[in-house]
Specification:
The protein has 10 helices and 8 strands. It is α+β, with helices and mostly antiparallel strands. It folds into 3 domains: 113 residues, no CATH class; 106 residues, SH3 type barrels (Roll), CATH 2.30.30; 85 residues, Alpha-Beta Plaits. The strands form 2 sheets. It has a 5-stranded antiparallel beta sheet. A 3-stranded antiparallel beta sheet has the order 6-8-7, with helices on one face. Helix 1 packs antiparallel against helix 2, helix 2 packs antiparallel against helix 3 and helix 9 packs across helix 10. The chain is elongated, with a radius of gyration of 34 Å. It starts with a helix and ends in a 15-residue tail after the last helix.
Length: 349
Amino acid sequence: MPLPMDLSVYSHNLLIAIAAICLGMLLSFILRKIFMFFSRFWLTFIISTIIKNLQGPVNFLLPLLCLNVALSFMTISADHRLTFDKTFEILFTVLVALTLIRVIKIMEDYFYHKYDLKKADNLKERKIKTQLQFVRKLTVSLIILITVAIVLLSFESMRKIGAGLLTGVGIGGIIIGFAAQKSLGNLLAGFQIAFTQPIRIDDVVIVEGEWGRIEEITLTYVVVNIWDERRLILPITYFVEKPFQNWTRVSAQLLGTVFLYLDYSVPIEPLRDELSRILHSNALWDGRVNVVQITDNKPDTIEIRLLISAGTSSDAFDLRCEIREQMLAFVRENYPQSLPRTRIEYYKD
């Protein structure tokens, strides 16, 4: 006769559990519909990103919360109740951690929506983005570590292991300190880069003889997107310990130079007029600098430097290429005798 009673208790508990889960799913559905309803009146980016990022955690959190409340209406032994309570405690901890991570993602999405990172003069935006990315990665790492620690410490066996480790904290601390020295150095270098900012996201840099842009800054390394779409991976301490060029540290504006090596007979004033004509008709020139100077003379040629300016490093590079091409064409067409040449004098007795 006990079997039918056990079966009825089991069926009773199962029905309560199913009802609690369905109620939680219904509440989650209603909450989502309420947000979508208000989004029609306040069509803002923040509401859409809240729905996008928090929909998953809420879909699990509300049914789990209802199921936890429903335990008090079930007929369960003390041992089983303890097991269920421990399981719910771990699941709630994980879901809260996931929710906090998604909230951080909402804040990051709001920043990307509010600030335009694609505009030419985006120094302020890149500064904030660099700090935000580092803080986000560090905060997410801390949330994960704290969550794992809370889950492990909820078990009695883990607490005993922790107590045993604490008794050897003297020697263990020294060993761990030496083992983690490099990791701690990377972390401190990350803090220094995030807040003193020798580099920022999308900065144009010259590192290891390569021209590229800072694509990603993590807690341990930096990714540089090289001009030919290769990726240069450098430890984050590189930008604290070694010299490198940052072309956009203060401003995206940049000067560019074009060198021409021509014969001594070339007239300089027509070159100045032609450079001015080319620059005024070129959208890449920002109107700041337009200079033609003889900077050196060699046995066979003179060195003529054309100094120009552009709003960004990419524009400066393209402008230099166009100026070099058009100025050489101008010399070939108008002063072909002034192209570099080798003179030979022949004396006949």
